[in-house]
Write a structure and sequence with these properties.
The chain is of the alpha+beta class. The protein is built from nine helices and six strands, in the order αβααααβααααββββ.
């Protein structure tokens, strides 16, 4: 006699992780947020997610780390001590060069310390910033859902290092995502596509950041452009093309 499994099936698992979680909805003054994704079948290749920076990335801890490093980077390493961080390691390399001068270490430590001060300041902005991630993988079913899930995981993996290095999102994050997904042999093989076909068709994506004063910044990879609700005209409106900058980067997600 077999006992029915209580574990979720792969399609149930993917469907749940591609759906927005109500508890993650960011709360910004003057901004109301709501979203939903309804797959045509049991599971699809559409993903919609809120990015609550403090909840997901622990902004408090990252600010404390940046402030700590800004002070530690200025402190010279005692003789024969083991390097405490990347700055100590680089200074040790500088000292191995014949043209090393003590003032070079001082200047380098000052610059890296100042960089961490800026990271901490930029991280503060994320307390009043909400992110929105949309992904639309080609096709329907489990494979498309897996692709959307892969894009999701790649995004968050790069975001971790992005916030530690810059304290905010930059174009480099999306360039890295594009290259990483374009070079994903596993994903191409799963679809039975050539590298050229896969680079063109894997998915479209839109990521945007909302601020309390109504500022909306976004990057779009082949996705239909977002609509903005106008309080003045009381309706959804297209974004003025003069407010958008278009550019092409290495293919992976459709440009």
């Amino acid at each position: 006699m077999s006992i029915p499994s209580t574990d979720p099936s792969i399609d149930e698992y993917l469907r749940k992780r591609l759906m927005p979680v109500e508890g993650a909805i960011p709360h910004l003054p003057g901004i109301e947020m709501y979203g939903n994704s309804i797959p045509a079948g049991t599971v699809g290749g559409d993903l919609f997610e809120y990015i609550n920076f403090q909840q997901r990335y622990d902004i408090d801890a990252r600010i404390r780390r940046a402030v700590k490093l800004s002070k530690q980077f200025l402190d010279p390493l005692p003789p024969d001590a083991v390097p405490r961080n990347s700055v100590d390691d680089h200074v040790a390399w500088l000292k191995s060069k014949l043209d090393y001068r003590p003032e070079v270490e001082t200047e380098y430590r000052d610059a890296k310390s100042s960089e961490q001060v800026r990271v901490a300041e930029d991280l503060h902005e994320l307390y009043t910033t909400a992110g929105v991630l949309l992904v639309d993988a080609e096709g329907h079913g489990i494979i498309s859902a897996k692709i959307a899930s892969t894009v999701h995981d790649t995004f968050h993996a790069f975001m971790l290092s992005e916030l530690d290095r810059y304290g905010k999102t930059t174009p480099q994050l999306f360039e890295k995502m594009n290259l990483r997904l374009a070079q994903s042999v596993t994903a191409r093989n799963a679809l039975g596509r050539s590298e050229k076909e896969f680079a063109r068709e894997i998915a479209t994506m839109l990521y945007g950041e909302v601020h309390p004063y109504g500022y909306f910044r976004f990057v779009n990879f082949g996705h239909p452009p977002p609509l903005v609700f106008s309080a003045e005209y009381r309706k959804f409106m297209d974004i003025d093309k003069d407010r958008m900058v278009q550019f092409r980067i290495a293919t992976g997600i459709s440009p």
